[in-house]
Specification:
Number of strands: 0
Radius of gyration: 21 Å
Order of helices and strands: HHHHHHHHHHHHHHH
Number of helices: 15
Helix content: over 70%
Strand content: under 5%
Shape: globular
Oligomer: single chain
Amino acid sequence: MGLSSKFSFIAVTFILAAIVAFLSDWVQKIGLLTFPSGFRNLIILFIFLLNWIFFNRKMTFKIGYKFCVISISVFLVIAFFFSPATLLNYTLGIIFTFLFVVIFILGATTKTYPNEIITIFNWLVIFFLFLSVIPVLGGLLSGLSLRFETVFFRELGAFGSAMNIGTILCISLFIITSKKKYLYLAVFFSFGILITILKKSIVSNIIVWLAFFIFNLNSKARIKLIFYSSIVIAIVYFTFGKDFSENFIESSAYLQDTGVQEHVRIGMYIASFKIATDFFPFGSGMGTFGSLASITAGYSNIHFIYGVANIGYNSPEDAASGMTTILDTYWPHILGELGFIGTLLFLYLWFFPVRLPLKLIRVAKDPVTKGLSFYIIMTIITVFWEGFSLYTPEIPSFILLHAGLTGLCYFHIARIQNPINLVSN
């Protein structure tokens, strides 16, 4: 097939998958449709598998990556026999947790053209702008933070994560095209993050801008960035400073009232470390702790044994109602369910796509290579960081972005380094 047919099919199907993944929660919330559990995961997998079938490009991954995939597979099979999980929960745990690996591999072995990726970037920016413009302008006009109103998003954390990805997309497009409109759009998304008053999302956004500041700007551009950033921060401070103060006081009061053990997120981390120690070397097994699979088709007894069922809204009743805090943080489920060894293997798979772009972003002369490298590095780091206080890494809409789109970008990064035998030694 030629460029035009591939262009339309891959780009359109990707954006359709993004629309379904991001808007399905809102559609369900207003009562238009009800989607079964795992629906979004299946849609994303189907789209990437379909594109892979039509536009597959054979390539050999580095021996370390192949060895890690085989090792984690063997690890999971053996770990099952030491786990209290049922076969159903264990299988669901594997599917939900390792879907990102499958999506990345499919994306990285799907032949695309740079213009297709740039088109996807542009359409995603427009889509995120559509999702954010009402709440951001509403917050600005009312002088109220977005703490409780995000319109299309199920909760504020997802809104903040999407705005961070939007910022990364815009900066990547600026690196590729040098068009200043993308920087203005990046500032808009960053402003949206600031008025959420979400500390973790704000830190993520600062990291994104610092990386841009370090890797891609000359001295004159850095001065301009500091100047305009100061203006934006000043506007946010004078408009929403009271909300920031109240949020810090609220967070401090919660920790002081509950203590470390009863703090939902901290309590989950403490319990996950104990589980990894007690169930060494395999962890308690997939679908047993702090994951969607651990509260699907039953409620895992591990939550009771390690004392987290009674903190926050972690009870079986809360899980059944869909208002649980068990999914308030991501990484405890990885440490608890996979143990120390499995977590190290998991982190290798997670950060593998970052290694090559880190090498290329400083030395590459081609702006497309630099822009795609920036997207890969910052998206994976951002989603990793936000997983410490959110469940973002396992939300299907963000798997689409941190694994799927990263895979499509990685195809070009790998081809540039070695055009004959992609990502091989």
